[in-house]
């Protein structure tokens, strides 16, 4: 491990060399930033990963069952397990997708499940990302460089390889491919995650495309090659949000979508990865109901716990939460990337009143959660080890079976007092080692 | 990969052009700069003339700094390297992360040097990285078409610059031969057949080639 630490600077130089960056917009100006890498990995022992794996597979299977139900028979509403207001008022619910089952009945092919580990070692699910979760490429490339920097670290520590991710991703695309190319659709190089889009295209041998490379004809999606001829697309791993995906069916002002893509999709002629409309299942309000979904659809007890969450939509829970604002964190259900997260204890009295009024006005928009004092991980700062908050994004891929990638993105806060680990908020990342023994 | 869009075809071609532009203009600049040190009569104007760039510079000192490192001068070596990068960054899946990394490093180095005390020694590193890029293209760009497209761009840029810089006709003829061979290998390739024929005749007849620069640049037109 020491030799790995000694090579930290060189590894970060190599990450810069390979363009491992993410983009952010500040004051409407695009900036590319390096994603700082810390060489001290998060280590997950074999037994712990086995449990996590079971829990994550269970959760994603239940979420896929929920999506099939919500866009199908809606039994979970009919049986009054989830109030219908929660479904139909969700920004993520797309009526355009109602009544359609995607290829092989899979909605969330690539799920990014965010977890934290409390100080008593219990893992808690913080949120589910079932739309376009990003981040797998960072530990993938970092591991490659770490293995070069310090081979003995890996021979001695029995770390399960993570280089199978591109193969897993390709199999996931192939599984639902309706006959044609595998294409990764990117909004372009000024997207925050463009590095990942282009790197995964390279690693999986998929075609990286922008919207103007694609067109729909006769309810089929095609890629235009340089000869002017059209190659059919069978699976589209889109890295564009639902609302921008198809200007004919969603936001008409979208300049990055493919007109009539949804029509081709609904005709069963192309698989879209992940399926449009998944936002209804990763809404932070719906998150509250996931343990219930597991029992309802799978008839199993949830293996992994949710962070204790209160629905502001429920009058009793709202009143109780507003009475103890200092002890809770409030989340806007429609925000992501660490935005819309407010710790009650950090607010002035005026701001607390303002937030409480907003919650009273729009209760469906918020949830409150207990603050989990999650585990601090050591990171190197100026050559010294310091402790910082860190979470884990696990990647669960649903193909012929549902599998968990034996790695994950560990993000950490560089601010000693912050719980927010997102890269867009200045955080860094670590490799996640799953041990084979 | 094998399947590329028209957009990517353009990027491959222009990646080759801009890489070559940076490489040849650095070498030309360094030669001119060497002469300029001994010439008291604003030798930089001759370099501008040679490279066919407008003389927007206050004096020799301004020229040396601005032409090499300025992001505001659209003709600077930095700006051309930036354009090479702009084309390369969207081609990772075609040219490989390894090939792209040489352009990334060249740009990062250029940006770093522009903020340090002025020196031209670092330009040798940029040249080295560009040569490494070309070596990498041969090894890591797996599609023959993609490789030929980048090299077509390089050949066309060489022809353009060699004509402007007054290279011997034999050198031009050799480069044109390479250009034709690569074009012939790319399948399918849409280009301006008329412009190609006109230039081809001109180079074979040893006509005054400077008058044919426009024709040369019309063989591939960016959409």
Features:
heterodimer, A: 437 residues, alpha+beta, Dna Ligase, domain 1, 2 domains, nine-stranded mixed beta sheet, globular, B: 223 residues, mainly alpha, 10 helices
Overview in brief:
The complex is a heterodimer of chains A (about 425) and B (about 220). Chain A has 14 helices and 21 strands.
Which overall shape of chain B is indicated by the principal axes computed on the Cα atoms?
globular
In terms of DSSP E residues, the strand content of chain A is: 25-35%
From the N-terminal CA to the C-terminal CA of chain B, the straight-line distance is: 23 Å
Which residues of chain A form runs of ≥5 with pLDDT under 50? none
How many strand elements of chain A?
21
Number of strands of chain B: 0
Average pLDDT of chain B, rounded to a whole number, is 89
Terminus-to-terminus distance of chain A: 18 Å
Strand content of chain B: under 5%
For the record, the count of structural domains of chain B works out to 1
Order of helices and strands of chain B: HHHHHHHHHH
Largest sheet of chain A: 9 strands, mixed
Largest interface: A-B, 27 and 22 residues
Helix content of chain B: over 70%
Number of helices of chain B: 10
Uncertain stretches of chain B = none
Largest sheet of chain B: none
Oligomeric organization of the protein chains: heterodimer
Q: Return Rg of chain A in Å.
A: 22 Å
Mean pLDDT of chain A: 93
